[in-house]
Amino acid sequence: MRTSDFYYYLPEELIAQRPLSERSDSRLLAMDGETGAVSHRKFSDIPELLLPNDLLVVNNTRVIPARLLGVRKDTDRPIELLLLKRLDSNRWETLARPGKKVRPGNSLVFLPGRLEALVDEVLDNGNRIIRFVFDGIWEEILAEAGTVPLPPYIKESIEDPERYQTVYAVEPGSSAAPTAGLHFTNDIFKKIRDRGVEIAFLTLHVGLGTFRPVKCDDIKDHVMHSEWYELPKDTADKIRITREKKGRIVAVGTTCLRTLESVYNNDCAMNPATGWTDIFIYPGYRFHVVDALITNFHLPESTLIMLVSAFAGKEKVFRAYEEAIAQRYRFFSFGDAMYLTRNDESRYRME
To answer: How far apart are CA 303 and CA 253, in angstroms?
Structure first.
């Protein structure tokens, strides 16, 4: 299967540059994974698409101010770091720009006398291991020195950084938002609960690798980034109870779906779990846990459009994307949403 099989043309003006004034005013394209039938709705209609005894699973990660602007100490050259993965109390795996100017042994300065760093290592993938030296509490220093990184296709700044956080974001650690959740409001959650739908939380800290293009021709050669997750006991229990009631598991976003499928693949009993996942889902994958998916529209040739193609059928998904483009939907992080039910061919069956 070729990366080019997942290309589609998107007019640049359809890439949403800012959030809507009201989160739930986004449009919603609902697609049946079996028939490919689509309907056009508002996101505020999402409670009507959920059924009593469903379980809605959301990712409660919070985006940290992971973008740091500083200088190389010996040259005063501007340096930008994007924090990707915390390795221990003061060491991070980072993406550095310009990478050629950030070499092992270099000292970097972000807040003079308060936040400096030493470049420890350059990894095979080009990322840098950075050792930070700081005076104070790390979270407070980072809040002062850093900013929330926006995806590279967003060219404008946003007035309120909280609009790049979900209303339920409580666990700091992500470099990017789980954007399918940006449409939810507390009022929508109340309506969902009023329909007899349970809500459960997990955590997956989203890395910037989410936005990295697939550069190899054969998608099987692509190496996924790893991300930390936690499935708490309460959520594991709710999943088992929902299954016993013959209810559906509805994942909010690809991060939730990847976490749930990773946990099952490690332990099909769906016990509480913490770990790292680099699961890569593309057509041919058999899903074990998730029955419906709420997600945004994804970049051409990305691992995420490969995932939704596996979930609901590639031909059906691409026809839905064509329809969305024709109907002038807004795409990507601040864009509109999709509601997908699973293509039955992608369901795992016990023989």
So the answer is: 13
CATH superfamily name and code, 3-63+160-346: QueA-like (3.40.1780.10)
Residue pLDDT, tens place only, 231-242: 999 999 999 999
CA distance 271 to 53: 20
Residue 221 to residues 212, 262, 276, Cα–Cα distance (Å): 14, 20, 20
The answer to whether residues 193 and 199 touch, using CB atoms and an 8 Å cutoff, is: yes
3-state secondary structure of 213: coil
At the second CATH level, the architecture of 67-147 is Beta Barrel (2.40)
Confidence label for 213 from pLDDT (cuts 50, 70 and 90)? confident
The first and second tokens of residue 333, run together, are: 């992080």
- 146, two tokens: 């850093």
Cα–chain-centroid distance for residue 291? 18
* Alpha-carbon distance values, 202 to 184, 230, 233, 291 (Å): 16, 6, 10, 17
Distance between CA atoms of residues 178 and 138, nearest Å: 24
